[in-house]
Amino acid sequence: MINQTKYILPVIAIFDSGTGGLSIYNKIKKYIPCAKYIYIFDNAEFPYGKKSKTFILNRIVKIITKIHKMHKIDLTILACNTASIIALSYLKNKLLNPIIGVIPEISTALNYTKNKVIGFLGTSITINHFSLFELELSGVKIIKLDAHKLILLSEEKILRNHISYKLVQNCLISFLQNSPIPDTIILGCTHLSYLIPEIIKSFPEKIKLIDSRKKIKDQSCLLLSNILKNKPVVNNISGIAYCTKLIFSKKLRNILKSYNFQTLKKININYNHINCI
Ligand code: DGL
User: By its UniProt entry, which InterPro entries does this protein fall under (predicted)?
Assistant: First the structure.
């Protein structure tokens, strides 16, 4: 029997405001099955998109610092574009072990667009962070769209397993009314990976969707390659999920279990205190 303690297997902490980061976890876990995963989500303050940057930075720094005091973490992943934009460079200077984060893949989208019209979805913080003036001068039109409603629909879909594509289509109206319609869409928010079928169905023609899952998976594999070389191959190590607000939904608890987060704990960042729930 293999000892599964955190000192033997690499420990990967994945952070998001909600459940969107599970899409990143899913991708990475396929390539790095022999690791202990910790999923942290700030459900008390979800969604982040409309909150102030200072507020979000403070929260993320407190949560990540606290998790690092509780576990020896080999790699921290900000599986939230908004969090990465606000807190990644700050935390890189603060943590001893590597931290990486998802960032919208604007340059990848440029390689795919044929009609030179790109749609850019993300929280208002994410889409406004990038000045795309130079790209526009080079003849590429980028239509930014605040994905706030889509992010809420994504959480709803995870809980209900289904969402009408018409609801998603309504949110994409500014893309669909543009002439020409964008042929490439940047998914600048991790929640949107859960809405891929509905987004595709909303468009009259085939579109290319660009998300950051492959890039962050490649970065993770590279950063952990040394540690992983000498580890035993072991699958299905149960992970721990931390939330910041008590969860009453049995469905959500079961969803976390289906992702192999058998333990769910509440982390209280204000009072330095952890409750098992
Ligand atoms: N998943 C987050 C992101 O990638 C956004 C969700 C939120 O608004 O909190 O930006």
Answer: Asp/Glu/hydantoin_racemase, Asp/Glu_race, Asp/Glu_racemase_AS_1, Asp/Glu_racemase_AS_2, Glu_race
Which are the contacts of 14, defined by CB distance < 8 A and separation ≥ 6?
Answer: 21, 24, 25, 28, 37, 38, 39, 40, 77, 79
152-187 residue pLDDT tens = 999 999 988 899 999 999 999 999 999 999 999 999
**pLDDT tens, 95-117?**
999 999 999 999 999 999 999 99
Domains held by the chain: number = 2
- Answer yes or no: 80 catalytic: yes
Domain identity same for 84 and 26 = yes
**The length of the chain, given as a count of residues:** 277
Whether 53 and 143 map to the same domain: the answer is no
Among residues 34, 171, 189, 243, which one is catalytic?
189
Atom of ligand 1 nearest to the CA of 188: 4
